[in-house]
Each structure stands twice: as C-alpha cells, then as structure tokens.
Design a protein that fits this description.
By secondary structure, this protein is an alpha+beta fold. It has a single domain, classed as Ribosomal protein L22/L17 (Ribosomal Protein L22, Chain A, Alpha-Beta Complex), CATH 3.90.470. 34% of the residues lie in helices and 36% in strands. The protein has helices at residues 14-24, 29-37, 44-61; strands at residues 2-10, 69-78, 82-87, 93-98, 101-109. The strands form two sheets. It has a three-stranded antiparallel sheet. Strands 3-4 form a two-stranded antiparallel ribbon. Strand 3 and strand 4 form a beta hairpin. Helix 2 runs antiparallel to helix 3. It is elongated. It starts with a strand and ends with a strand.
C-alpha cells in the first residue's frame, strides 16, 4: 500500500528542487523530515510540507504506521513557465522566465 501527496505550481525551478529531492529519496520518512528541516536550500520548505502531508495521508487514510514509512518515490516535474518582460535600454525588452514545479511524494510501509 502507498500514500501519496502532491503540490502543484510551486514557484521555483524544478532543476533546483530536484537537487533537494535527491537527498531524501529512499530514506525513512522521519529521517527525511529531519534532513529537510536542516537543509538551507529554498526548495526544502515546500518539499518538507509535501512530505508531512504524505505522512498524514498514510496515517489517517490508510492506517499505516508512521515509524515504518519510507520515501519510495519523489519526483519534481516542470510546471508552466510564467513569462514576463523587463524594460531595457533604447526601448527594448528582455524576457524573464519564472518557472514552476509540481512535487510528488509516494510513501510506502517497510515490510518487517
């Protein structure tokens, strides 16, 4: 059995969020929360919230034991890119791309 949580349209680069997601893949859920709480990178906070939500889903919806959960899968997909313009010299404009991310975490219970 598995529990899942997603967060969509998070305003950060998926490339940077994947670096943080790679640090907790396969870890125990409680250890992953501890790692994320001390990670200084900006993507750590929304990933922490999604992991916390997935743990609550596992405990409340599927009656899984919180101590036996581990991060079976975590992936960060690219969301839509917000396109903006910045005025430049001589009446020109340059593009500003504001990327978004979709974070998905799937937790499973260890057999043991």
């Amino acid at each position: 059995m598995e529990a899942k949580a997603t967060a969509k349209y998070i305003r950060m680069s998926p490339r940077k969020a994947r670096l943080v997601a790679d640090t907790i893949r396969g870890k125990n859920a409680k250890d992953a929360l501890n790692i994320l709480s001390f990670t200084p990178n900006r993507p750590a906070e929304p990933i922490y919230r999604v992991l916390h939500s997935a743990m609550a889903n596992a405990e409340n919806n599927f009656e899984m034991n919180r101590d036996e959960l581990y991060v079976a899968q975590i992936f960060v997909d690219q969301g839509p890119v917000l396109k903006r313009f910045r005025p430049r010299a001589r009446g020109m404009a340059s593009k500003i791309r504001k990327p978004t991310s979709h974070i998905t975490i799937i937790l499973k219970q260890r057999e043991g």
